[in-house]
Amino acid sequence: MNTEKDFSPLTPNIVRALNDKLYEKRKVAALEIEKLVREFVAQNNSAQIRHVIQILATEFALSQHPHSRKGGLIGLAACSIALGKDSGLYLKELIDPVLTCFNDSDSRLRYYACEALYNIVKVARGAVLPHFNVLFDGLSKLAADPDPNVKSGSELLDRLLKSNIYELIHVLESVPDINLLDYLPEFLDGLFQILGDSSKEIRRICEVVLGEFLKEIKKNPSSVKFAEMANILVIHSYDLIQLTSMTWMREFIQLAGRVVLPYSSGILTAVLPCLSYDDRKKSTKEAASACNHSLMKLVTPEDDVDDEESQTKSSPQSDGSPSKKESDLNGKSYCRISTRSLICCVLCSSDRPAVTLDLDGIVQVLDRHLHDSSTGMMTRIAVLKWLYHLYIKTPRKMFKHTDSLFPMLLKTLSDESDEVILKDLEVLAEIASSPAGQTDASGSCDNSDSKTELHIPGGVRDGQPVVVGCKVTDLSPSTPSMNSYFYKFMINLLKRFSLERKLLEMRGAFIIRQLCLLLHAENIFHSMADILLKEEDLKFASTMVQTLNTILLTSAELFQLRNQLKDLRTQESCALFCCLYRSWCHNPVATVSLCFLTQNYRHAYDLIQKFGDLEVTVDFLMEVDKLVQLIESPIFTYLRLQLLDVEHNPYLIKALYGLLMLLPQSQAFQLLSHRLSCVPNPELMRTVEDPKAPVKDKRLAQPHIDYSELLQHFDRVQSKHLEVRHQRAGRSEHPDRKL
Question: Which residues cross the membrane (predicted)?
């Protein structure tokens, strides 16, 4: 640098010190410049002030000599400090040369440039806002600077700039003539970005500002552009600012109502994961739960109106439905879209007369959470509650998604949580019983299983075979109608039990009992019996019949069905008995217990007589043991009391003696033997041959049941089982142990 050049009003000593390689000497020069500028400020001599800034910028900060550039930067910072509140008048001249030095190849010089700009912004405070764009561009260059000192300096400058912006907004909010709520959609995104800052103080200030805005929103909800800000809240629902985002979202839903419905899928994407938080994030979880509950209440039956119908009620300009781009944003990929694009794609006003529920987007979000194995239990429960709610409120539209949802709903039955399974069964039961799922004339529910009929043999009447044929939609006059998905559900449920034997063993009884509460028990047993009649896996059929029989005999949920079967006085009850009997034949002991339940004691005796021809295994005897235990349970109290009437129930006693003869000398043998020893006056155990001892035979009161045909069916089924067991024994090195 030419030291002979005139740099007045800067003295030669100041010029020399600014060019020195030592920082301390440059600092002394900066102090002298500060004194000089203060004098010019006192004299109101703006011309000299501009002249000093120009010299420092052109001759020093933009010099080719590195030490001169460093001196120019510290000199410009000194000018800003001296100017104080008046620095805003000279900001462009002060900032531009400093920003130029951000591109310097020397990392030390870039650091000094950061330091100088920090001092300039600190003094100017809110006055720097008109220059925000250039400042932001400069900071963005230093954010990824390879030098850690430069990067650290840029972070300090970034926090200072944010702090200044917060303070300005806070001041503007208190000005009565300015309604900042009108402009809130323009800078709400920025506020939430700043809320994630690493500085605790900056976050505190931002929280205060946001809190003030939220108070104003609650006071004046009619003037708030909710629709323009809904997705902004969605994209900022990550960890650091999640609680604030959820709090705002909760208030938006409660204040704006159905205006937020087009953004439901995006809101659910943000809310659902929070529902599985533990107590460490209790506040966030509670806010998310409130959001979820309020949003669910907004869905009403009017949302089940077809799109064509809704278009006749409102024009395309006023339907409030989101665009395809927005739908994708809500359901799936919103995090990849810039905030500016996001704001451009939302609705332009919150007072539109009609809104459209984004049902497709919601179902997509719910289905994705069900498929995700990492989804928490409470989130899965919430997802299933949503599905149930949607099937109740919008059944017509929801059944369009049933085929895609059905496999995952079936898979969810294997969940580890009983509560999840209960909610899942509620959804499946609603699908199976909703009138919206009925197959119409046009075949809107195109399902081959829906056309299946349950053909139930009823024996003979007046010498002619009676077959009770009933569609799944109306199993009997005493049961509510089921739709075309009911039979499909039963088939797939049994298929799942067949493939997952552990599910059948651990949860089978629980699932079937709950279904009997949610749907009609007769429908459940009727359909399962018919399906098992065609089951090719005979071992599974036997196991399944044993499970169903245990439920039938022991569960409180089946009380009404047991009473219906106790007295076979109607054609419907007889048809049900025949239907169950034919499938129960897969398990001989279960068949006998069914006869005991229906008081068909003579037929039970006839069946036990055939047990001598069966392959008696340890498993078989264990089932007989369990039956003896059941006979001693409250379920069969009426049977034990009938032992007092020996004259009219000889076949009951003979059947029990038949079981006794099957048993080895075991505890069950002793139990049944002791029971039979209590039967009074054994001499009265005479059969029908004695005319003085008439036998009450229930079969005489049921002419439309062909018991001979039922016995023949039992023989055929057991022959198939025997053949299969022999085939297995031939392939196995260890056949079943026999007695």
Answer: none
pLDDT tier for residue 193 given thresholds of 50, 70 and 90: confident
Helix (H) or strand (E) holding 466: strand 464-471
Residue 176 has a pLDDT of: 54
Tokens for 398? 């929801």
Task: Report the half-sphere exposure of 148 (CA within 13 A, side-chain side).
Answer: 0
Cross-strand partners of 468 = 456
Q: Which of 59-73, 89-103, 355-369, 677-691 is predicted least confidently?
A: 677-691
Residue 230, amino acid: A
Q: When comparing pLDDT for 161 and 611, which is higher? A: 611
pLDDT at 307: 56
Is the pLDDT at 15 greater than 80? The verdict is yes
**pLDDT greater than 70 at residue 364:** yes
Query: Across all residues in the chain, what is the average pLDDT?
Result: 81
| Contact of 75 with 30, CB cutoff 8 Å | yes
Give the span between the Cα atoms of 472 and 489, in whole angstroms: 11
Percent of the chain with pLDDT over 70: 80
Closest Cα partner for 249 from 284, 277, 223? 284
Task: State how far the Cα of 662 lies from the Cα of 521, in Å rounded to an integer.
Answer: 33
Question: How many CB atoms lie under 10 A from the CB of residue 107?
Answer: 14
Could you give the dihedral angle defined by the CA atoms of residues 171, 173, 174 and 179, in that order, rounded to the nearest 10 degrees? 140
Six-digit token string for 306: 């077809």
Cis bond upstream, residue 12 (ω within 30): no
Alpha-carbon gap, residue 57 to 76, rounded angstroms? 7
Which residues make Cβ contacts (< 8 Å) with residue 396, sequence separation at least 6? 304, 306, 436
Number of Cβ within 10 Å of residue 514's Cβ equals 19
Residues 6+ apart with CB under 8 A from 59: 1, 5, 7, 68, 72
Element (H or E) spanning 453, and its range? Answer: strand 453-461
Please state, as a whole number, how many other Cβ atoms lie within 10 Å of the Cβ of residue 118: 20
User: 489, 475 in Cβ contact below 8 A?
Assistant: no
Residues in the chain: 739
Distance of CA 335 to the CA centre of its chain: 20
CB atoms within 10 A of CB 226: 24
Q: How far apart are CA 19 and CA 29, in angstroms?
A: 10
- The set of residues, in sequence order, having a beta carbon less than 8 Å from that of 674 and lying 6+ positions away, is none
> Rounded to whole angstroms, how far apart are CA atoms 391 and 588?
42
Q: Is 420 a residue whose pLDDT tops 70?
A: yes
Tokens of 324: 């395809």
Indicate if the pLDDT at residue 475 is higher than 60. Answer: no
Q: In angstroms, rounded to a whole number, what is the distance separating the alpha carbons of residues 199 and 156?
A: 9
